[in-house]
Write a structure and sequence with these properties.
- Two copies of one chain form a homodimer.
- Chain A is 26% helix and 16% strand.
- With 340 residues, chain A is an alpha/beta fold.
- In chain A, the strands form two sheets. Chain A has an eight-stranded mixed sheet with strand order 8-9-7-6-10-11-12-13, with helices on both faces. The first copy, chain A, has a five-stranded parallel sheet with strand order 2-1-3-4-5, with no helix packed on it.
- In chain A, strand 6, helix 6 and strand 7 form a beta-alpha-beta unit.
- Chain A starts with 11 loop residues before the first strand and ends in a 22-residue tail after the last helix.
- The interface between A and B is large, with 56 and 55 residues.
- Chains A, B: Keywords: NAD, Oxidoreductase.
Chain lengths: 340, 340
């Protein structure tokens, strides 16, 4: 199974990455050429992972949509020192209590997705403001029907998530003339770009003013289900909701009800509780709901960026230097002070 | 027909604005309350305009999609002193040689549409980069199909048109990380925002580097048909073309051929040689072509903005002050020095 020249004593790098992930997340193996001769690379899928983990020094979770780590994580004894996931979210890894309680360090792909996701959200916001889906539906029907659209500049957005993705979204919307308020776990003032960052506890008081509500938060116990009927009830009937966080941030049936009853105007979801979204899901044809297949951050070259980032961190690990993007396993994300 | 209190000696303001314009441009009459008692307002449609023009001091072309002015413009003798059109483009008015040769001053709606059109173009560019139409087509089919998309930041755009609309487009794309080059009638250097502005004569040498080509130029003799087979042949196969200028900027059959043959990757048209686009037009279903019904600048409140702008200029006219947004009838647009 080894892909590199094996030398006695080189560390074992286990890569969880089955080709052909349903829905097409990361079908290819990462480019780890840079590690040639410096690691024994063993590829695992969900079935073979349990046998490999006890001999692995490092685990690269390339197939970040897999639940295999939780199932395969070994009991006390020999375990990987370090787990890196090729994703920004670490909610799947942290759903394994034995991994959380272990001394194993977790790092993530913080940084790779910021600008792509910010562009994607800005595009969705503009598409909703200008009703592009309506225009293209009319185009299919060969119908010329002029409508007035919304001016984006001067509207008001609440971005939930004050990490690098939320910040990039906020920055991009501000560049388009939108007034942005950022919501994080705790309140902070004097942020050089956003001024006051609000605590998520006061979200309810902020929602009534928002034209746009964007979720880009990490999924943690305190953020799961935060967009529920009560939250949608506080939004304006003209508000639009965008989720690029995790499906479980939203109580999906409450969102459907808010859309069907015109409690809010529209929504765009790139993430779902159940991915790939089953073809029988009612979400596919809710009026006013735009669906896309968890691709907001995945611009051409993203796999190379993810592999490069892992190799950079591997260099540090091999040299005994501190890793970057170390996840605080209690908080559920990489705190700001750990930014690379 | 008078809508205001008529006083002896008040000027006659003729408003060309038939309600129910096909395609829905400006169905309502302008709000001219501010002029109450200061002008005798006479509403005209295409049929009654010829009878009213010889008695009108001012003509407000509210239905800017109408060709009536060319047909109804009076011969030598009594003519309106001033014609204002509620549009940025003045190509329809300037298609009347007797109006061009007369002493009548023409003003336009320069300024009202800049930010809305810039947002619309940025939205189209992002929608093309992120393949939103592809996602929503897959949504209709209930298919989850992950794709990689294009990162917008770092791409290269050519914006043809260096007036306020082209500049707003350029500024907005730059805020999204796009490198922008502006093309105007003549070369200028040292522009505070864009550095060198290129002359349209060198467009052919600029096109091969563009990821995005945006047309926001005034329609004049020298810009009509500028996007033809030769222009598309110079673009990259991955280039995308956006037209928010006038339909006649593009040789439509050449664009269709460029799309069908994959000479360029995609295009978005908001304007057409023939508007409303007839339901039998082949343009509705060209692969890779997004069609919208000439609405890029028309955000909620645009009619009020247009009426307010006209009334502001009317105040100047009534006070004998110089008008703003005076069109250079030879150039075919409002030169920069005349900006309000």
């Amino acid at each position: 199974m080894s892909e590199t020249t094996v030398r006695a004593g080189v560390p074992v790098l286990c890569v969880l990455g089955s080709p052909g992930v349903p829905g097409g997340g990361l079908p290819n193996r990462p480019n780890l050429e840079r590690l040639s001769g410096r690691a024994r690379v063993e590829y695992a899928d969900g079935d073979s992972l349990a046998a490999l983990l006890p001999v692995a020094d490092v685990l690269l979770v390339w197939d970040f949509a897999s639940d295999a780590v939780r199932r395969a994580w070994p009991g006390p004894g020999r375990r990987p020192e370090w787990v890196h996931t090729a994703s920004a979210g670490v909610d799947r890894l942290l759903s394994c209590p034995e991994l959380v309680d272990s001394k194993t360090v977790i790092t993530n792909a913080r940084g790779v997705f910021d600008q792509p996701i910010a562009e994607y959200v800005a595009g969705l916001v503009l598409a909703l403001a200008k009703d592009f889906r309506g225009s293209w539906e009319l185009q299919r029907q060969r119908r010329w029907q002029h409508r007035e659209t919304m001016r984006l500049a001067g509207t008001h957005a609440i971005v939930v998530g004050s990490g690098p993705i939320g910040r990039a979204i906020g920055r991009t919307l501000m560049a388009l003339g939108v007034e942005v308020e950022l919501v994080g776990r705790t309140e902070r003032s004097g942020d050089p770009e956003f001024g006051r960052i609000h605590a998520s506890g006061v979200l309810g008081t902020l929602l009534p003013s928002a034209d746009w509500v964007v979720c880009a938060a990490p999924l943690t116990e305190s953020t799961a289900g935060m967009f529920d009927a009560a939250a949608f009830a506080r939004m304006k009937p003209t508000a639009r909701f965008v989720n690029v966080g995790r499906g479980a941030h939203v109580v999906q049936e409450d969102l459907v009800e808010a859309l069907v009853s015109h409690r809010i105007a529209a929504a765009a979801l790139d993430v779902f509780a159940d991915e790939p979204l089953p073809s029988g899901s009612p979400l596919w044809d809710v009026p006013g709901l735009l669906v896309s297949p968890h691709m907001s951050g995945d611009t051409v070259g993203w796999r190379d960026d993810l592999a490069r980032q892992f190799c950079d961190n591997f260099d540090r690990w091999a040299a005994g230097e501190p890793l970057f993007n170390v996840v605080d396993k209690q908080l559920g994300y990489v705190p700001d002070r750990s930014a690379p």
